[in-house]
């Protein structure tokens, strides 16, 4: 049964302009440049140049209009009489994030797997063996390892390709692949990978032969860095052990990674969004906008819209459609220019608040001077929403006198010292890193010892917290930091 009733609701909706500002706020400078170029290509009413406004704009527009009376000027008549203009240009087109975006392929060389396949083609093999070799190569990962069991590969070949084979035959083909470049490719685990590489070296060299013996018969002790056990079992001197271990450390644990694959690898060039200069003790902030052009509305389209707006009652249907198209494009251009302006203002406003919060760091470049700071702190300082601060901090960088930093670098949690002072966790991590850097590598500092050192310095943290910070810094446990 249908009923009619009145109901009040409070709804929060974002306008298209607000959505545009949010999207522009998230992207870094390099992507902003591309976004502006795309907008310039799609919107004919938008062009590069200083955006003149109010009286200056009106005065110059009047002067231009007088000067152009005798010149050939673009008018709506040209637009209307252009028979090649398709109808879709008179309507707006909305893009979705789900739209398929095709990229132009380009040739930059052969891939890692093509490199292996080319070497397989140089071997004297029958077609059956070549097919097995190609299938094995297809199962090698980007690090150069064959991590699937040969029995599983044999089953796949039987069920999916109808090729009869067994583990022994596949292993014979795999041994051929082991001779390929880069050395160590096709190994099934780290031990086999290192053994393939060490066996390719001259075994007449004592330290190489010793390194092979350690990898083959004492691999577990080697991975756990139980060097004293290896030394005892093989009756080695300190010098002999050190020379053998040095040979092993020269080997590549990821042979596939040494091959430059243009299809799988991308290099990123960081372009700072902000530039901070320290001049006579004063911090001067600016946006890096050298590749971001000024934008303005094309005046010819503005004049055209004004002239036809005055005679719209007598305008034809075609003229009204053309005027509607031009108006829609001009409005879109104005929104875009305003969104860019809002983006720049928000970025500067937020970054200035971060600088004021972390002034000591920006003047010295010392990580221990960083104060505990979370998104909420900057949101309260600027009066902006936390989500806005998060968008500003995401994928943005600042160039300082001490290097280029990600904005996320300046955000960290805090803890209290024994004296009650609140310090950043980054300060503790810096001290932890310095302690590990200065330790005796023959007897590395355990997490418990590091905890005691930090407590002595006035930072009362638990051993599990030390372990967490150590892992975040990418520092292995003490046993794995041990050196001869």
Spatial order of the strands forming the largest sheet? 3-2-5-6
β-sheet strand percentage: 5-15%
Main beta-sheet strand count, sense and barrel state:
4 strands, mixed
What's the gyration radius in Å? 33 Å
**pLDDT < 50 runs, ≥5 residues:** 53-62, 64-74, 79-104, 262-267
Overall outline: extended
Share in helix: 40-55%
Order of helices and strands, N to C?
Answer: HHEHHHHHHHHHHHEEEHHHHHEEEEHHH
Question: Which structural class do the helices and strands define?
Answer: alpha+beta
Quote the distance from N terminus to C terminus: 85 Å
Residue-averaged pLDDT: 80
Q: How many structural domains does the protein architecture include?
A: 3
Number of strands: 8
Please report the number of helical segments: 21
Describe the structure.
The chain has 484 residues and is of the alpha+beta class. The protein has three domains: 112-258, no CATH class; 274-410, no CATH class; 414-481, Homeodomain-like (Arc Repressor Mutant, subunit A). Helix content is 50%, strand content 7%. The chain has 21 helices and eight strands. A four-stranded mixed sheet has the order 3-2-5-6, with helices on one face. The protein has a two-stranded antiparallel sheet with strand order 1-4. Strands 7-8 form a two-stranded antiparallel ribbon. Strand 7 (414-416) and strand 8 (422-424) form a beta hairpin. Helix 15 (317-357) crosses helix 17 (375-382). The chain is extended, with a radius of gyration of 33 Å. The N and C termini lie far apart (85 Å). Residues 53-62, 64-74, 79-104 and 262-267 have low confidence and may be disordered.
């Amino acid at each position: 049964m249908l009923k009619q009733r009145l109901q009040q609701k409070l709804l929060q909706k974002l306008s298209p302009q607000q959505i545009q500002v949010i999207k522009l706020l998230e992207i870094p400078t390099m992507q902003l440049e591309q976004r502006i170029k795309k907008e310039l290509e799609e919107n004919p009413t938008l062009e590069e140049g200083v955006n003149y406004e109010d009286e200056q704009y009106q005065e110059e527009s009047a002067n231009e209009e007088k000067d152009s009376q005798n010149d050939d000027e673009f008018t709506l008549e040209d637009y209307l009489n252009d028979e090649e203009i398709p109808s879709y240009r008179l309507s707006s087109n909305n893009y979705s994030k789900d739209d398929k975006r095709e990229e132009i392929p380009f040739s930059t060389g052969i891939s890692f797997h093509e490199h292996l396949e080319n070497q397989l083609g140089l071997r004297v093999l029958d077609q059956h063996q070549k097919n097995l070799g190609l299938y094995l190569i297809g199962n090698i990962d980007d690090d150069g390892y064959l991590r699937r069991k040969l029995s599983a590969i044999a089953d796949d070949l039987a069920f999916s390709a109808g090729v009869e084979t067994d583990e022994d035959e596949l292993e014979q083909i795999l041994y051929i692949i082991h001779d390929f470049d880069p050395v160590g490719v096709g190994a099934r685990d780290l031990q086999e990978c290192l053994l393939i590489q060490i066996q390719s070296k001259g075994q007449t060299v004592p330290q190489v032969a010793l390194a092979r013996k350690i990898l083959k018969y004492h691999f577990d002790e080697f991975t756990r860095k139980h060097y004293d056990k290896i030394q005892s079992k093989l009756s080695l001197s300190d010098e002999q052990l050190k020379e053998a271990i040095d040979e092993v450390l020269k080997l590549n644990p990821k042979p596939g990674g040494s091959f430059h694959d243009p299809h799988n690898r991308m290099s990123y060039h960081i372009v700072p969004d902000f530039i901070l200069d320290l001049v006579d003790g004063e911090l001067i902030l600016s946006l890096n906008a050298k590749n971001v052009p000024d934008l303005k509305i094309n005046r010819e389209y503005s004049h055209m819209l004004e002239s036809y707006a005055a005679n719209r009652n007598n305008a034809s249907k075609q003229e009204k459609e053309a005027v509607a198209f031009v108006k829609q494009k001009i409005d879109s251009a104005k929104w875009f220019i305003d969104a860019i302006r809002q983006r720049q203002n928000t970025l500067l406003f937020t970054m200035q608040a971060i600088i004021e919060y972390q002034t000591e760091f920006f003047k010295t470049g010392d990580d221990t001077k960083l104060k505990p700071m979370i998104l909420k702190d900057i949101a309260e300082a600027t009066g902006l929403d936390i989500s806005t601060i998060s968008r500003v901090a995401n994928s943005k960088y600042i160039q300082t006198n001490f290097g280029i930093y990600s904005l996320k670098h300046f955000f960290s949690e805090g803890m209290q010292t024994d004296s009650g002072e609140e310090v950043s966790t980054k300060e503790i991590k810096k001290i932890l890193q310095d302690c590990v850097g200065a330790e005796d590598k023959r007897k590395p500092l355990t997490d418990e010892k590091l905890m005691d050192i930090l407590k002595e310095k006035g930072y009362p943290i638990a051993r599990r917290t030390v372990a967490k910070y150590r892992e975040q810094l990418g520092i292995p446990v003490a046993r794995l930091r041990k050196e001869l």
